[in-house]
Amino acid sequence: MLRRLRRALRRRAFEQKLSALPALLEGERAAEAESEAEAALVIGEEVFGAEAAELTTPLYVMAAARLSAGRTDDALAACTRAIRIAEALAGAPTEPRLPKLYELAAAIHERAGTFDETIRLYRRLLAGYERMRTPDEAAIADVAGRLGLLLGKQKQAAEAELLLGRALSITERVHGARSRPSAEVLYNLGTVLAAAGRRDDAARSLRRAIGILGEHAPRPALLGAAQHNLATVLEAEGRAEEAEAMYREALATYEASTDHEHADVRPTLVRLGHLLVAKGRAGEARPFYERAYALAARDFGVDHSITAGIRAFLDATAPAP
């Protein structure tokens, strides 16, 4: 009787800890989330056993919290254990479901720079979603888009374009052609096409993304990035006046946000400075280099190579004595 009561109390304690985990993760309280998840795991192992389905939730939270802290090895250990438990259950439901565990594992591998494993996991996820009796189109589009973007970064442009094109077609059907998700896919497609040297196609995709994003509530990071990338395409085509105007639009987008000195601003400041120098306007370039230098010093320290590089640009544009 006492043993049964103790088990019931421990089970309740486990459930209480689980219920608190989502809020901790969403509130970016990674250290607390990891600590509570570890405590829940200990209780879960005691109540349910070391290979029980119930353990996948605390293991998932532990992995996510460790990833947010940059501890990829520890994150992968927790995620791998959760996947092993879920796979051994042969289709029995777990929370989170196995696809979500694969997604987290892919994110961990991508952060760790093990891209071959990341690509393998995304391919496995995509195949799994496609085999479902009632395919989840939104999930297929999401994974196809992620895989396409990753392949683009690995210089596999042809397959990347096919996957991103598929993701765009599905996303437009599911969410609408003028939706924010469609704009995000267009941005990724434009970025991949630009890297592959397909500047005209890249510019079209990026302009479409910018037009759609302008219709929705502001998301400065994405809109500013799209404007920045379009500016680089225009600059590469020799359209310096249009490029300058677009770099300035990107800066205005960032500066309108609450965090106008975000790290994302630095590359735009540097590129605009370079463009102005190339146009013989070094004096105008200096304030942009100065802002970029301050951001780099804040984020990397004054001795970092990025900071030193911007310092060199500043020195090169110093007025003659």
How would you describe this structure to a colleague?
- It is a single chain.
- With 321 residues, the chain is mainly α.
- The chain has three domains: 1-128, Serine Threonine Protein Phosphatase 5, Tetratricopeptide repeat; 154-257, Alpha Horseshoe (Serine Threonine Protein Phosphatase 5, Tetratricopeptide repeat), CATH 1.25.40; 261-321, Serine Threonine Protein Phosphatase 5, Tetratricopeptide repeat.
- It is built from 15 helices and no strands.
- The chain has helices spanning 2-26, 30-48, 56-68, 72-88, 98-112, 115-131, 137-153, 157-175, 180-195, 199-213, 220-236, 240-255, 265-278, 282-300, 305-316.
- The longest helix is centred in the N-terminal third of the chain and has 25 residues, at 2-26.
- The chain is globular.
- It starts with a helix and ends in a 5-residue tail after the last helix.
- The model has no long low-confidence stretch (mean pLDDT 91).
Task: Give the secondary structure arrangement, pairings included.
Blueprint: H1 2-26, H2 30-48, H3 56-68, H4 72-88, H5 98-112, H6 115-131, H7 137-153, H8 157-175, H9 180-195, H10 199-213, H11 220-236, H12 240-255, H13 265-278, H14 282-300, H15 305-316
Helix pairs in contact: 1-2, 1-3, 2-3, 3-4, 3-5, 4-5, 5-6, 6-7, 7-8, 7-9, 8-9, 9-10, 9-11, 10-11, 11-12, 11-13, 12-13, 13-14, 14-15
Tell me the domain tally. 3
CATH class of the largest domain: Mainly Alpha
What integer value in Å does the Rg equal? Answer: 24 Å
What's the helix count? 15
Q: What would CATH call the architecture of the largest domain?
A: Alpha Horseshoe
- Care to count the β-strands? 0
